[in-house]
Amino acid sequence: MTVYYTLTFLLLASEMVTFCLLVSPLPYGIRKRFFRFLSESPIVAKVAYGLKITFIFVAILFIDALQRMWRVTAEADIARQTGSNVNNVQSETNFAARKFYSQRNTYLTGFCLFLSLVLTRTFYIILDLIHTQEEYAKLKQDTGKSSPSPDQTKQIAELKKKLEAAEAKTRDYEILKKQAAQNQVEYDRLATEFNKASGNVSDKRKD
The BAP29/BAP31 transmembrane domain covers which part of the protein (predicted)? Predict the structure, then answer.
């Protein structure tokens, strides 16, 4: 794997770790301070700006990998239709290796971009959940001192609905986290099996 795809894989791994931290069942006080730090820290803002630039390059790699995958697939189809290199085991292995590596690079960069969108959306959903919980706790405290007015009762009901919807979305992202981990394990297993089966393929096919 070339340097830029290795860096992309490390970025994907860091995204998965960050995603696990975001959806982890932290106590409310710790989660509140953690997300406040992420949303208000200037250092985090600079890092986020750098990551946006990085994802532009990842998007370029994704387009290039997608074009390579289409080209390799088209070459394999043409070879099968014309009957050339059908009996050449080495050529078939090279075609299979090129197709595998092009697909691997496409999935790697594509999932990296997809997870960046999921992380951004998850962060703002949880941040909105924390703000809603704060408003609900403050309103509940104010109404506890006196009998609530009809407007306050309606506002409390709306905040309860927002809390339920946000918590449901958080649970959905926890399910997505488990599925992402399972997909990563399956990807590693398939890559290991393929490398064992095509151990005679040269490294120049890996870019």
Answer: 1-138
CA 85 – CA 11 distance, rounded (Å): 39
Task: State whether residue 170 is helix, strand or coil.
Answer: helix
Phi (first) and psi of residue 63, to 5 degrees: -65, -40
Q: Can you give the length of the chain in residues?
A: 207
Is the CA virtual torsion 51, 186, 193, 76 positive or negative? negative
Among 56-65, 105-114, 191-200, the minimum mean pLDDT is found in 191-200
> CA 185 → CA 62, 171, 180, 181, 190, distances in Å?
22, 22, 9, 6, 9
Q: Which residues are within 8 A (CB) of 76 and not within 5 positions of it... i.e. 6 or more apart?
A: 95, 99
The alpha carbon torsion through 178, 182, 185, 186 (nearest 10 deg) reads -160
Q: Looking at the predicted structure, is the pLDDT value of residue 207 above 60?
A: no
pLDDT of 8-24, one tens digit each? 889 888 888 888 888 88
Contact 112, 8 (CB under 8 A): yes
